[in-house]
Design goal:
The structure holds two protein chains of two kinds. Chain A is an alpha/beta fold. Chain A contains 14 helices and 17 strands. Chain A has a seven-stranded mixed sheet, with helices on both faces. In chain A, α6 (180-189) links the parallel β7 (162-168) and β8. By secondary structure, chain B is α+β, with helices and mostly antiparallel strands. Classes of the chains: A alpha/beta, B alpha+beta.
Chain lengths: 409, 146
């Protein structure tokens, strides 16, 4: 099967140790198509100036490019207005912004924040810091052995005391797709606001903030074909409007006096300092590319890759897969596994010798690792430019791992 | 570079025999080493008498490279003085960093020479040096090491 998109990604032609690159670390970052690389290059060749400030044509061009990217992003997630789109560096910065601006102004002693145990550290640490400061409580939703949220935890832990529920759309370790609409309905029924971190979701699944009625949404450009250093915070306008600024400085002000200042309206209120215009232009092009391919096509390709990988992995006797192991269920092409008796770092190094890039470690999810009682895992994660051949190469190499550690065959 | 230069028979032998992976009797020094980025942890136990390492063993968890490197180190330092052990550690670091390439100077490292090519795998260097750093940091600063 030939993949028509592969040729758009120049890095996939690389070789390591004279072996073609098999890139299976897409949950860490995606590769970039030519069109995104070229859009960023064109911006720096033709439009670069500091936006907003300059009164000359080039600065106006940079401002237009930046604001066009904001509109394209708003449309992409079906936001009501581009004022609801704040550009950040990444999801981590967006989550910190929500914690320090919204969380700090609404949270009181005894209030609760609810998150799943499987969250990335970026959706744990800002809340840990905040509850310490406020004397509030950080409460966890736990998982069953297949990686799904426990129904009784959703039912019993989101209560009148809950002020914030913050949840990943898709687990970066287990690939589980969480029941976002159900969580949002439950949280809204007790008056809590919901933050969805779709960094691992939006590269693979369409997101509609109006349909979900989500309060805040965050994602990173670099996991969905855009450059690193550009991320998005979506917030409902009335929430963002009432929040104090996070970072302060240039670009986010209206008037500044010796002792006081008034702030710019949305979205600039939350974008202190010179923004990453080149990154935003790259993100806009990434969105165009994804729309052109189409989420249906992306999902068709990825489901085939996922099902093939799960089937092949299940046939290797010394490999254990974490989370849902059956094909066709609510799980993304993010597969955590271990080779019996082999540390994940050794597995990764041995695959690397065959040109195969996977992730090994705790995946910035140490509470989940402790909950699953594993020190670390290997993780292979797919995107629509991967092929069945990539997976076969990976499986072939994986079968040899134990031999290198002296386990016979 | 082929993976066979790293996952050698020497490494496999240390990994699978686990002969140095155990607590020792009456240790006089206990040293902890951690690689926070990968979660590797070792506890190194030494029994020192008159400035000589009489016995040594380790426990903990980690990848094949960190475990085998620590085990190889233990074979080398048993019966050695603190000064000799520090010299071995410095020679090992010199080999890994490519600062010592003279094969005669490296000879004192015996089986640890098997880890020479780890310098071609920069991501794994910290695994190979974990045990050695734990040893050197501990005995160079421990007042009870004599």
């Amino acid at each position: 099967m030939s993949n028509p998109f592969r040729k758009d990604f120049p890095i996939l032609d690389s070789t390591f140790n004279n072996k073609p690159l098999v890139y299976l670390d897409n949950a860490a970052t995606s590769q970039k198509p030519d069109s995104v690389i070229k859009a960023v290059e064109d911006y720096y060749r033709k439009q670069n100036a500091n936006p907003y400030r300059g009164l000359y044509q080039l600065s106006v061009a940079a401002t237009d490019a930046y604001e066009e990217a904001r509109s394209i992003t708003a449309e992409f997630i079906n936001a009501k207005s581009s004022k609801e789109i704040i550009f950040t560096r990444n999801s981590t910065e967006a989550l910190n912004l929500i914690a320090y601006s919204y969380g700090r102004s609404v949270l009181k002693a005894g209030d609760e924040i609810v998150i799943p145990i499987s969250e990335h550290h970026s959706n744990i640490l800002p809340w840990q810091q905040l509850v310490k400061e406020k004397g509030a409580v950080l409460s966890y939703l736990y998982l069953d052995k297949n990686g799904y949220l426990l129904e009784e935890d959703i039912e019993n832990k989101i209560t009148e005391r809950t002020k914030i529920v913050s949840i990943a759309h898709v687990s970066n370790v287990l690939g589980t797709v969480y029941p976002i609409e159900k969580i949002i309905q439950k949280a809204h029924s007790v008056g809590a606001v919901v933050i969805v971190d779709t960094a691992q979701g939006i590269p693979h699944y369409p997101v509609d903030v109006k349909q979900w009625d989500v309060d805040f949404l965050v994602f990173s450009g670099h996991k969905m074909l855009a450059p690193m250093g550009i991320g998005v915070l979506y917030g409902k306008e009335e929430l963002l409007d009432n929040m104090p600024p996070f970072l302060t400085g240039g670009e986010m002000i209206e008037y500044v006096y010796e002792q006081e200042a008034t702030f710019a309206p949305l979205p600039n209120k939350f974008e202190a300092g010179t923004p990453n215009v080149g990154g935003a232009v790259g993100l806009a092009e990434a969105i165009r590319y994804i729309n052109q391919v189409g989420y249906d096509t992306i999902q068709n390709i990825e489901e085939e890759l996922r099902d093939h990988a799960l089937k092949e992995l299940s046939q290797i006797p010394d490999v254990v897969v974490y989370g849902e192991t059956k094909a066709g269920r609510d799980r993304c092409g993010v597969i955590s596994f271990n080779v019996e008796g082999v540390h994940p770092h050794d597995t990764s190094s041995i695959l690397d010798a065959d040109g195969i890039a996977i992730r090994a470690g705790h995946h910035c999810a140490q509470p989940l690792m402790n909950y699953m009682d594993v020190a670390a895992t290997c993780r292979a994660s797919f995107y629509f430019y991967n092929t069945i051949e990539d997976i076969d190469t990976f499986i072939h190499s994986l079968k040899k791992v134990r031999r290198w550690l002296g386990y016979g065959n | 570079m082929g993976i066979e230069q790293i996952y050698t028979e020497v490494l496999q032998e240390h990994l699978n025999s686990k002969r140095n992976k155990h607590p020792i009797t009456n240790p006089t020094v206990r040293l902890n080493g951690v690689n926070p980025s990968c979660g590797d942890e070792i506890e190194l136990e030494l029994r020192m008498t008159d400035g000589v390492i009489e016995d040594a063993g380790y426990t903990g968890r980690g990848c094949a490279i960190s475990q085998a490197s620590t085990s190889i180190m233990i074979d080398l330092i048993k019966g050695k003085s603190v000064e000799e052990a520090v010299k071995l550690a410095d020679t090992f670091f010199g080999m890994i960093k490519h600062e010592i390439t003279d094969e005669e100077k490296l000879e004192i490292l015996e089986d640890a020479i098997a880890l020479k090519d780890i310098s071609h795998m920069p991501a794994r260097v910290k695994c190979a040096v974990l045990g050695w750093h734990t040893l050197k940091d501990g005995i160079a600063t421990n007042p009870n090491n004599g």
